[in-house]
Amino acid sequence: MKRLTVLALLCLMLLPDLSRAEDFFESQLNRGIRNTDVYSSLLMQEARSNRVQAMFLLSKANKYSPDLPSVYFSMAKEKFSLSSAGILASVDYIIAGFDAYARNFWWSFSLAGGVFYSLVLSFILVMLIIAAIRSISDLPLIAHEIIESKQNIYPLIALLLLSLISPLLFLAGILVILGMYMSRMDRFVVYLFLIALLCSPFLFRAASRFMQVASSGEMKAMVAVNESRDNTYALTSLKGAEEPAALFSYALALKRAGLYDEALTEYHRLLTMQPDIRPLAYVNIGNAYVGLNDMEEGLQSYQRAVNLRPLASAYYNLSAVSRELLDYEKGNEYYRKAVEVDRNAVSRYQSMAARTPNRIVADETLSFPALWNLAKETRGVTSTFDLVVLSAWANTFAACMLIVALYYLSARSRNKAHRCRRCNSISCPRCEKHVMWGQMCSRCFRSLVKLDETEVKERVTRLISIYEYQKRRRGIMRGLSFLLPGAAQIFGGRVLYGFLFMWPFLFLLLIPFTNTYLSSGPLISHWVVNSFSLLFAACVYALSNIITRRRIVKGWL
Fold first, then answer.
1. 499 three-state secondary structure
2. CA distances (Å), 481 to each of 60, 178, 486, in order?
3. The whole model's pTM is what?
4. How many Cα atoms occupy the beta-carbon half-sphere of 172 within 13 Å?
5. Is the separation of the CB atoms in 478 and 488 below 8 Å?
6. Which of 179, 184, 360, 387 has an alpha carbon within 20 to 30 A of 368's alpha carbon?
7. CATH fit for domain 217-376, picks 3.30.470.30, 1.25.40.10, 1.20.120.530, 3.40.50.300
8. What tens digit of pLDDT does each residue of 498-550 get?
9. What secondary structure letter does DSSP report for 19?
10. Contact at 8 Å (CB) between 473 and 137?
């Protein structure tokens, strides 16, 4: 509802321009704006209600916003049919849509944030489920050991006290206790969680960074200018900026607004700050001189840029200005050099070319990787999301202690209590001095192996009870396999095997929710990614059920 309200307001604001779309499009290009996402979104809405002209409207939306992934995805949906031509055309548009992610910072940033949060949340959720399922069978073992020897309670108290630092460490403490009753291979899952806790300060920092960047007005202004979406916001929010990237973006917004003298002042101030950005600044300084109709100064600025770094924009601008000065031979020479440096960039410049200050020459902007580097360098307080009572590094210290504790306790796990594989009864070295073949209790061993040591009636009764227990156990595992992939394996004692099914499933299942939560604006919708994610989750679910049921039938679980 919020998204529809925002679009309705934007529609009312742009209503005078919608009646003369071509004039509006040209006016945007004259201001240096190549992507008008709001107008394209309105065209996509109109295409959904007008199926006859849908492809025409979507083509216009693509023209007004060539870097908007949702336009390509809508065109893929419109072109799709069961014919080979329809499928291929749809696939081409989907590929083009994913390629547009590499040109649209906020779409790629919100998707990366959604994937990151889904990865972490699903990992924690899997560990919670493992702890819950294994506690059902392993807590009685712990209780049995405490009854047999009161000294066994002290390590448990120490682990639980250590775990009170945070909920995550409480979960880690439970997993360490349960890990003592896992096989050596399954214990890898517990170590994996503890290693994740070792890295928790970095994970908290990354999670906080996604929130901080999404709410940063300065970042929004820089992205809008450098991706040719808007200049107005930058003129107010970046004024007085001292950081080189922000100053560069502010100067570019001034130049596009026709404030050439102010832009030159900011660019010359920038030249003294950061050597790496000088070639880009010289290109835009030349563009500002072209706006002032001082072509000779413009040429000199482009030459300075080329001397520092052979940029396609600098050569293209040298070509354009040389032709304005009627030096076509030099113009052709510079154009060939521009094509040699970056053919795609030259095609992009030519698609906007016209005889206006913002279109006769090409502006140099901060690249997509540069914007990502700015996002990584965003400063802010690292939040622990109320998951740690002390500092985030307390998790790391406690995780180190838990790793040592798990290694030490695992070395003593040979003398721990265990369940009979046949009847599920609990025993320990104090109860039975010898562990029978196949980890069976003595009664099951006599009934199944030492047939001459038991009476027929007792043996038959025992076999029936074993059969009933195994039948009940298989029924529970079938139910768990339908409930959640990997749950049956975890219940059956194959924790690592269940983890490898459960984590991918929950990760794919959570992506649509985290993507929706972290979308940085009403115009961002990762519905294609979400659809593929749910499709792959369904495939994991089906594959897990098939494999689990076959293993249950064959008695391997």
1. helix
2. 49, 22, 7
3. 0.87
4. 33
5. yes
6. 360
7. 1.25.40.10
8. 999 999 999 999 999 999 887 766 678 899 999 999 999 999 999 999 999 88
9. T
10. no
